Amino acid sequence: MRQVLLKIHSRCNLACDYCYxxxxxxxxxxxxxxxxxxxxxxxxxxxxxxxxGKHDLPYLAVILHGGEPLLAGPDVIDYIVRAVRGAITxxxxxxxxxxxxxxxxxxxxxxxxxxxxxxxxVSLDGPATANDRHRRFPNGRGSHAGVARALRRLNEARHRxxxxxxxxxxxxxxxxxxxxxxLLAFDPPELDFLLPHGNWxxxxxxxxxxxxxxxxxxxxxxxxxxxxxSPAPQTRVxxxxxxxxxxxxxxxxxxxxxxxxxDLVTVETDGTLEQGDALKTAAPGAPATGLHVRWHSxxxxxxxxGARARQSGVDGLSATCRRCPLVEVCGGGxxxxxxxxxxxxxxxxxxxxxxxxxxxxxADRLATDLPPAAGGPGVRS
Length: 381
Fold this sequence. Notes:
Strands 7-6-5-4-3-2-1-8-9-10 form a ten-stranded mixed β-sheet. It contains 13 helices and ten strands. The chain has helices spanning about 40-55, 75-85, 105-115, 130, 145-155, 175-185, 215-230, 240-245, 300, 305-310, 320-325, 325-330, 350-370; strands at about 5, 60-65, 95-100, 120-125, 165-170, 190-195, 235, 265, 270-275, 290. About 35% of the residues lie in helices and about 15% in strands. Strand 2, helix 2 and strand 3 form a beta-alpha-beta unit.
């Protein structure tokens, strides 16, 4: 494991209607403590240090997550970071990040993050109309104004080193270039576009059974072209960088593309070890492993059947995916998006048609600009 996601708070101050934690079939959050206790923090920290030392890891990322992690308070975050850095005795370099909606980002947090060199990722889905369609407070009020204030603060010169990037969930009813340009206006160092979570039992919005329709590829392609044609992009787009790298035979870098092993483990607020959050959209208990930091190491987690399935590369994919010429680039898509109650995860992604269309479009753009010898496995598709 090279990424540890710590769920330090299990509740949120927003009520986003697409949230994979609160709005889907797995409702385990209801039975978990709101804040990770000091005892479970200490146990998790000991497991982090144990894993880093045993495997002599050069690098480890610790991501503070929720719910909304800033609800845990500055003292909890300060305690976690100091504990992790104090426990690791190997040469492992630890990078800390926090993924937040930004609404609680005040001077106290910014000073704390500067002290500990914690990078801040903020979620925003575009202009006010686009963002506030889904990302609202429980009373129905939109969140855009508050998030925009946080992003402007992160862009101040003294805070800019903390700015990690913006995470945007795709809504195909929005104009893609309006969304892209609005996000670029905040000058983020990085953008990531997240496909809304769904599966074959509960398809995402606009993703019907007709394989001839590719609404998500159609939405992403204009942004890809604008990004690709930019002479010197000031903002990285992780999805597109990973796609191009894979087409050229390089590594992926994101979980939803390529055949790389998933190197992330989640520690919930009660100390249980879980698989990725997106599995909460599949079935009740789908992310659960039955493991806890008190009794189990991260190596124990790696032996869990669910974790092993996500480490097995092409052998863990459906027969349809294994036969596909795009498999080395697509990688079967995000694991959770393959789920069906009839066949489990032995399926292509519910986004299969969209991914194929996007990959082929990117491959065509590269093939136009590069000599054939430069192409990777996806270009020949």
